[in-house]
Amino acid sequence: MLRWIDVLTFAKYGNPEPPRRVEKTEAEWAAELPPARFRVLRQHATEPPYRNAYCRSYEPGEYQCAGCGTPLFDSTTKYHAISGWPSFTQPAARGAIQYHFDESHNMQRVEVRCNVCGGHLGHVFPDGPAPAGLRYCINSESLVRVGEDEIPS
């Protein structure tokens, strides 16, 4: 289980090694991704709160990166945080996520990205529920939910 101290350590000293890497040019990403997904994943945009695909969705399954298909979150860690975006308490695996300090918009936050393709997902905060206290606030455009019956074994 990751804790806030783990998040800060990764952001400061280096992220876990990904299981694989997906590297493409920005032109290749732009050709493959729909415009809204490209803005979020590659240009670090934020989708509007409450008007996104997974904010109020709690169906079982696995949430994968919309850029490369890497498993990022499981629906069992999703909860209603009233933030306007899907919120999770833990990533699917310790090495699924990259952490980076983000001081944009006059705020101090920790940005989260897919550790395989580097796509922007959202941010993580230390105000989530026990036991770890983490809240991964993620853009729906960066995710694809795969239902339990669709997940390969």
UniProtKB/TrEMBL annotation:
Pfam families in alphabetical order: SelR
PROSITE patterns (alphabetical): MSRB
Enzyme class: oxidoreductase
Reactions it catalyzes: L-methionyl-[protein] + [thioredoxin]-disulfide + H2O = L-methionyl-(R)-S-oxide-[protein] + [thioredoxin]-dithiol
EC number(s) reported in the record: 1.8.4.12
Any one Gene Ontology cellular component term annotated for this protein: cytoplasm
Keyword Repeat assigned: no
InterPro entries on file: Met_Sox_Rdtase_MsrB, Met_Sox_Rdtase_MsrB_dom, Mss4-like_sf
Recorded GO MF terms: peptide-methionine (R)-S-oxide reductase activity
Residue ranges of domain MsrB in the record: 26-148
Domain of life, source organism: Bacteria
A single BP term in Gene Ontology: response to oxidative stress
Keyword terms: Oxidoreductase
Keyword Acetylation annotated: no
PANTHER family documented for this protein: METHIONINE SULFOXIDE REDUCTASE, METHIONINE-R-SULFOXIDE REDUCTASE B1
Name of the molecule in the record: peptide-methionine (R)-S-oxide reductase
Source species: Hymenobacter cellulosilyticus
Name of the gene encoding the protein in the UniProt record: msrB
